[in-house]
Amino acid sequence: GYCIISVLETMKTYSTDDGLTEEALVTKLRTGSYHHLFLHTSLRHNSSGTCRWGEFGEGGLLWGECRARHYEWLDGNPMNELLSKIKELYGLENEVTFRNITVTSENRPRPIHLGTATQIGAIPTEGIPSLLKVLLPPNCTGLPVLYIRDLLLNPPAYAIASTIQEVCRLMGNVRCSIPEFTCVSSAKLVKLLELREANHIEFCKIKSVLDEILQMYKNPELLEILKLLMDPTWVATGLKIDFDKLVSECEWTSTRIGEIISLDVEIDQQISSYPNIPSEFFEDMESSWKGRVKRIHLEEAFEEVEKAAAALSLAVSQDFLPIISRIKASTAPLGGPKGEILYVLVDEICRGTETAKGTCIAGSIVETLDAIGCLGIVSTHLHGIFDLPLTTNHTVYKAMATENVDGLPKPTWKLIDGICKESLAFETAQREGIPETIIQRAEELYSSVYTKDMLSERSEAKLERFTLNTNVNGSNESSHRFHGNSKSEFYAEGKSATPMEILQKEVESAVTIVVQKKLIELYNKKNLSEFPEVKCVAIAAREQPPPSTIGSSSVYVMLRPDRKLYVGETDDLEGRIRAHRSKKGMDNASFIYFLVPGKSLACQLETLLVNQLPNQG
Fold first, then answer.
1. Which PANTHER family match (predicted)?
2. Which residue, among 471, 8, 477, has the nearest Cα to 239 in the 3D structure?
3. pLDDT in tens, 316-325
């Protein structure tokens, strides 16, 4: 038979397939991807000693396939000559060694016939649809498709095929969320690493692969699948590795990458921002390098950039903006040919009218003066102006400084930066000789109205924080029975939970309570022990639902990054999650879902949760 030697220069590996028929060899040539083709001179002479190619001579399959390609002839020992040519082509030193990753062909089925491969579309042929496109999900593209096609064209040994089938069977019965299974070309990564051209994106992909392996290792449902995948992986890559060594190396490498690469937008790496400089300027200057490597490794560079940004802002505000403001004020501040307002002093603006509307008029005047670049000073006791959503670029807030004298605050008549909402009204009245009884009564009235409002606001805020950081409990005993995840269980691992993790547990608890109660009513079950519990499954960021959800009706809750909830129902949970995460800012959204028997019930429970979750806090 024929023998084909495949060399992968980037990985420094080679493999051989021997005992091939001419048809199998042509199939490999048509489905393989290679840059150079070399033919050994033994092809020129068959067993009869003639110069014809192959079994059918000139015009045969192999002759026709090679004739349409660029190739070179090799003589002598095929392996040595081929590796020598590769080193010459890629400028490699003679000392460079290539590793043999050949998988023995013993007990392997024969490769698929060329005609069969063409008829099922495994080899792209005009007018013939691909069987893989029909069998595989539409979102299955790239490396997974190539792997499945290779299994069809070159079936593995029976033991490996049985292992792959067992993996598929186990995966179909999984009930927990599963990794996204990041697919990366190993040859491309190796090349980038060798040339030191791998950027943070490649390192993030590597870490994703490692973390997904570790996720499977730590999950009892997925651990057996991970172990079974070792042999098919060895056959596909030629790399045989001990399972424990794989796990330990993944842990070490993932940790090492995490110590260097910035995986999320960190607070200390945000783009610089100053009110007097367009944000686009800093975006252009800093977005190409910030958020790539952790700041601890580039502290000096970060400090230099921050100092430069602050110096630029200071120069703009002190030197450039005053010039622009004067030019604006002296040209056409009110739309006329020449401005008349250069400097404005307003004391107690809009004090002679209703407080609320006067405050808004004052705010509008400040916005107008700010927009036309007018210089000036505006004083006011209308403290509500500080709560208005004013659009200003150059307005700064100043306050009168005070000092404590004999236990009483007194003004220093000096301006300081900041907002002041205290006018020292009672102290001023006392100093001006207003009777003490009047001042005391005024303080009582103030406390009875305004202090109560402030306390109410504080209580509501405190209650809101309390609601967000405590579990939701049902109102009856039956509800408590299904509250399976208490806070004590959640913190059992001994590490503090993030606000999103706390929210997830609260939502999961509330969903379980509401849905279980409704199902009991619908099925009219009196004995709770006979009724199946609602089992909520969490899908964290960069995870996807298990295959067991395919074709099943489910109700889900999306936990958005802004802590808002979205409730929905679907028969295609994976597709719906993918659609949600494709929207801007939602790529790291997490989900909670549970399966239900039928779309009708799913719609009922969706409506129920939309209405009931707000009542659960």
1. MUTL PROTEIN ISOFORM 1
2. 8
3. 888 787 777 7
